[in-house]
Amino acid sequence: MTDTAPRPTLEAVAARAGVSRATVSRVVNGGDGVREALVTRVRRAVEELGYVPNQAARSLVTRRHDAVAVVIAEPETRVFADPFFALQLRGISKELTAHDNQLVLLLTEGRDDHVRVGRYLAGGHVDGALVFSLHLDDPLPGLIQHAGVPTVFGGRPGWSESGGDAVFVDSDNRGGAREAVRHLVGLGRSRVAHITGPLDQTSAADRLEGFRDVMPDADPRLVEESDFTPAGGERAMRELLDRRPDVDAVFAANDLSAAGALRVLRERGRRVPEDVAVIGFDDMLPVAEQTDPPLTTVRQDIEGMGRLMARLLLDRLGHRTAEGAEGAPSSVVLPTTLVRRASA
Amino acid sequence: MTDTAPRPTLEAVAARAGVSRATVSRVVNGGDGVREALVTRVRRAVEELGYVPNQAARSLVTRRHDAVAVVIAEPETRVFADPFFALQLRGISKELTAHDNQLVLLLTEGRDDHVRVGRYLAGGHVDGALVFSLHLDDPLPGLIQHAGVPTVFGGRPGWSESGGDAVFVDSDNRGGAREAVRHLVGLGRSRVAHITGPLDQTSAADRLEGFRDVMPDADPRLVEESDFTPAGGERAMRELLDRRPDVDAVFAANDLSAAGALRVLRERGRRVPEDVAVIGFDDMLPVAEQTDPPLTTVRQDIEGMGRLMARLLLDRLGHRTAEGAEGAPSSVVLPTTLVRRASA
User: Fold this and answer.
1) Which of B68, B84, B119, B144 to mutate to test the interface with A (most CBs of A within 10 A)?
2) Which of A213, A241, A255, A337 has its CA 20 to 30 A from that of B87?
3) CATH superfamily, domain at A10-53
4) Residues of B in contact with A77 (CB under 8 A)
5) Could you report the per-residue pLDDT of B228-248, keeping only the tens digit for each?
6) Does domain A67-171+303-334 have CATH number 3.40.50.2300?
7) Cα(B126)–Cα(B47) distance, integer angstroms
8) What are the tens digits of pLDDT across the range A163-212?
């Protein structure tokens, strides 16, 4: 455990690989312009010797850590329970790895820990941050701003209608919700209910707006706030059936809560879609395909959003300028598509 | 996104909270010896002002980051697919948070990225590291040693019988496996098969040893190497049934592969436990309770192991000496227990 052996030097790696010091340095710093065969030889020598570049010295020169923090503003238990986050992280991980940046996931037990996260971000350990699943009264955006770390948000931040000058990647939540509810109306349904997400998140609030765009005069008892979880979807569906037993369609704000709603509908003897048509949001696989019946839903490309967030941040940090990025990156709102399966 | 506003100072926080500068400093640095009511007032002022302590200056004095890296030597897709890791991280997260340390999870796409992880660890961004799910020929242990970061391992590292001078937390894998196989023999079963984990991991190799302790003369066709996944368990069970249709018991090296084996046994018309008795390893909930039939298994306290790893590391770093830790921490091997349900 004690580090008694001297650290192997760049020279030792060069000697072992049979290449010049400059070649080792280029490989260690990204490998641009070095032949694949040489890269492989140098990497093997690095592994064999356990060579670690002197990061502190390197950082002083480049002022770069080649590391990006990811902050999901949810307790770690939720991060691991909701496949949405795993998918978004998959996209981020692929993109960062393709540019040899380390993904630094900062986990917390909840909002009380966000001051500590702000401290870590301010500590000069990462070049930038990707932040998602923000809630309206979270201190994190302020802490990040004071930390002075370039940041790209997943989902429009809630502190202003347009997201202020924040750079973010989002789906067209309002437009997607409108398309879902219009589809239900097109099926001849008139008592359409909405199971929302947590309304302190813009994604959930925007989907509710989309619902209201199509159903401006909906009975308030047809809207039930929920929390994006299967258990929350079950609770909301029970509540809706008790209040309005004549409900003939449900738009759920995500697939997980739609799956919960489907279970309750079956339990109460309602046929889907004959008695009640159901639409979700996400097209999260395999969830959306494995519900009974398979779920009609609004597709957003979750992994692709993660990839795009990472790409925008790397552009900002100047990692990708060679590949044709130009000017300051701006926010991106991606279109959604309705995917028809059996439930509506 | 740009950081134009000046950073709020310690003095500003003190003024807002109506306390002394020293009190703010004590709260920001851990809160020891400050009354709860004052702590709350200071924390509120910190949040309202978006105050971030000058970490660089603080680190120079304390040489501490109050951050611990967690490295799981598996691709991020597996980290999020196997609930084992979520449970271990839960224990780690709770313990680190209780001592106001930031959990820094370093995710990778696979072993090729471990040189980059070593670089980050060597870069002075964390005080220590928790490393688990090592495979035998992984360069990570060497890279970590050269990085000079105090480390505690989850699972005995594979580079020597005793783990060398590495500090690790492990379960009694061999003893637990022996108890499982003895239980099957005690049920009168004589054709006991073993579905192993990946044998380049000590946990899997040790469980195979435990199987052999009890069944030294087992037909080699009754042992099938697998990979700790449900799909791997299915493949292994098919293979075993094809080779030895008379198999009357299976010890699977973890619950996920046992769940896969149960599905194949049902598909092939074998009754469990009447025709084939099945035992798993982990007692991972809810998996072990939700199999059909519910799974008899060897229980290890996965969350508790994560907690203990974090505790040993914090002891080493001197965070917990006030609580009675003494001397250098040493490795811990925890006992296992057989949990009987319906499958054996």
Assistant:
1) B119
2) A255
3) lambda repressor-like DNA-binding domains (1.10.260.40)
4) 90
5) 999 999 999 999 999 999 999
6) yes
7) 24
8) 567 899 999 999 999 999 999 999 999 999 999 999 999 999 999 999 99
